[in-house]
Design goal:
- There is one protein chain.
- By secondary structure, the protein is an alpha/beta fold.
- The protein folds into two domains: 6-263 and 487-505, Glycogen Phosphorylase B (Rossmann fold, 3-Layer(aba) Sandwich), CATH 3.40.50.2000; 267-482, Glycogen Phosphorylase B (Rossmann fold, 3-Layer(aba) Sandwich).
- Helices cover 42% and strands 19% of the residues.
- It is built from 16 helices and 18 strands.
- It has helices at 37-48, 88-107, 118-138, 155-162, 179-182, 188-195, 206-219, 267-274, 279-285, 305-318, 340-360, 377-386, 401-408, 440-454, 463-482, 485-505, and strands at 6-14, 17-21, 29-33, 52-56, 73-74, 80-84, 139-148, 167-171, 200-203, 234-236, 246-249, 255-260, 291-298, 326-333, 368-371, 389-392, 416-420, 433-435.
- Strands 5-6-4-1-7-8-9-12-11-10 form a ten-stranded mixed sheet, with helices on both faces.
- α9 (279-285) crosses α12, α10 packs parallel to α11 and α13 crosses α15.
- The two termini are 37 Å apart.
């Protein structure tokens, strides 16, 4: 059952499966694959290299109703998965605490104040050690290990000590803030030291990568307490797209390469599946409005859901949008509901939904359809295809794949995208109507520009305006089609191979 050591290991906070009750399965539990672009991109690499995936199975081991997690899980696709166990205390302090109440707000530029708790930090260190030890047991001699995201930033450094034979990559899936923000973290040097255990460190954008390079210049020497770091780190070059052109000389003398690798979606699959969806059925289900607006997000304070609802309310109030012929569908998937800031966000959003429907809905015609539960991806594709306007107003976002999914569903140039300028996607999707989510008037202008360019209710457009609207969408569609998740994974792993070859050549 995949117990031999592997030449390629992915380590992430979660495994790409979830337990499903099934009386016919061994122990009454079946492990069902979780959808996601990361799994899609990495599955071929894992299969070619007898690869392994190390991560948490999703349930705390000391819960009374927790399913028994096997030592290894083999999927129908042939993936070998190796669970890391977390207790309820680990989940509270490592995951909800340090990962999501300390690092998440810090990395998203202090949208809410981070909480700095020494007990949480100790748990973060302990759990990172547990993941690193699990990887060390599963990785073959000279294997390649790819560590994913902010929950596991100490893993590269620990692995470098445990297994100096490994080639190690790290990718951050969220923003990396400017140095002056990051340096407030009490354990900044320890995290930098952990990341510098990698051979290649990847970010979504050049600006994020350059923020990290600047941090390495500033966190050592006079500006830092340099715990475990030299008085000055040797930092060379700058980031570039899909090339690890920045370099940091680590304390052990290794050259750590840094670059930006914009993540994307499994474009081909999304385009193919979206073509099968009945756009008309979705519109009929919400009353066949002239203008259908859509938001799809985790219910997270970084996503700017409240500002788009307030903009929508103001446009209805002024008559710019007709409540009799306009519908907003907002999908807000539950997220981290035990964290205080998330509960507060949910309360604000749901009160706004109730207030707006109370003011503008008529019998049988709500102006907002609000969905607070997970929605199958196939249903989301139908919503994407049907929507005239996709509204993405994130206050801060590493990339935002929802925007790319929407664009992929409109190969014919229909539709229009409202996009926050503070998303990573804004650097690639140049046909979007950009907005500043901190400026209500900016969001309103972008929504109206998008609605007027595409909706069925809009006044007839002149030919030039209509052609421009379709050109915007077709240009973005081509970008998303040609720069898919496979390109992201391939470009990072190619840089990791080059780094390994350079290291071998230097010995």
């Amino acid at each position: 059952m995949g117990r031999e050591r592997s030449d390629f290991v992915v380590v992430a906070n979660r495994l790409p499966v979830a337990p499903v009750d099934d009386p016919s399965a061994p122990d009454g539990v079946r492990w069902e694959a979780s959808p996601g672009g990361l799994v899609t991109a990495l599955t071929p690499v894992l299969l070619r290299n007898n690869g392994a995936w190390v991560g948490w199975a999703g349930s705390v081991s000391d819960a009374p109703d927790a399913p028994e997690v096997p030592e290894a899980i083999d999927t129908d696709e042939g993936l070998h998965l190796f669970p890391v166990e977390l207790t309820s205390d680990d989940h509270e302090r490592f995951y909800e605490g340090f990962s999501n109440a300390t690092l998440w707000p810090l990395y998203h530029s202090l949208i809410v104040p981070p909480k700095y708790d020494g007990d949480w930090w100790e748990s973060y260190r302990e759990v990172n050690l547990r993941y690193a030890e699990a990887v060390s047991r599963r990785a073959g001699e000279g294997a390649t290990v790819w560590v994913q995201d902010y929950q596991l930033q100490l893993v590269p450094g620990i692995l470098r000590q445990l297994r100096p034979d490994l080639t190690i990559g790290f990718f951050l899936h969220i923003p990396f803030p400017p140095s002056e923000i990051y340096r407030q973290l009490p354990w900044r040097e320890e995290i930098v030291r952990g990341l510098l255990g990698a051979d290649v460190i990847g970010f979504h954008l050049d600006s994020f990568a350059d923020n990290f390079l600047e941090l390495c210049r500033r966190v050592s020497g006079e500006a830092g307490s340099h715990t475990g770091l030299p008085d000055e780190l040797d930092v060379r070059g700058e980031s570039s797209v899909r090339k690890a052109s920045g370099t940091i000389i680590a304390p052990d003398g290794r050259a750590v390469r840094v670059g930006s690798f914009p993540i994307s979606i499994d474009s081909g699959s999304v385009i193919e599946r979206a073509a099968e969806k009945d756009r008309g059925a979705v519109r009929e289900a919400v009353g066949n409005p002239g203008t259908l607006l859509l938001g799809v997000d985790r219910l997270d304070y970084t996503k700017g859901i409240l500002v788009r609802l307030e903009a929508y309310e103001s446009l209805l109030e002024s008559g710019a949008l007709d409540p009799e012929d306009t519908v907003f569908v907002q999908v807000a998937t539950p997220s981290r509901e035990r964290v205080d800031d998330y509960r507060v966000t949910r309360g604000h959003v749901e009160r706004a939904v109730g207030r707006i429907n109370g003011r503008f809905a008529s019998l049988g015609r709500p102006v907002i359809h609000y969905i607070h539960r997970p929605v199958p991806f196939g249903q989301l594709l139908g919503m994407y295809s049907a929507a005239d306007v996709m509204v993405v107003t994130s206050l801060r976002d590493g990339m935002n794949l929802v925007a790319k999914e929407y664009v992929a569903c409109h190969p014919d140039g229909t539709g229009s995208l409202v996009l926050s300028e503070f998303t990573g996607a804004a650097t690639e999707l140049d046909g979007a109507h950009l907005c500043n989510p901190y400026d209500l008037e900016s969001v309103k202008r972008a929504i109206m520009a998008a609605a007027n360019s595409t909706s069925l209710a809009a006044d007839p457009l002149d030919d030039a305006a209509r052609a421009d609207a379709r050109d915007r969408m077709r240009r973005m569609h081509a970008q998303v089609r040609d720069h898919d998740v496979d390109l992201w994974a391939r470009s990072f792993l190619e840089e990791l191979t080059r780094a390994h070859e350079a290291s071998e050549g230097g010995r």
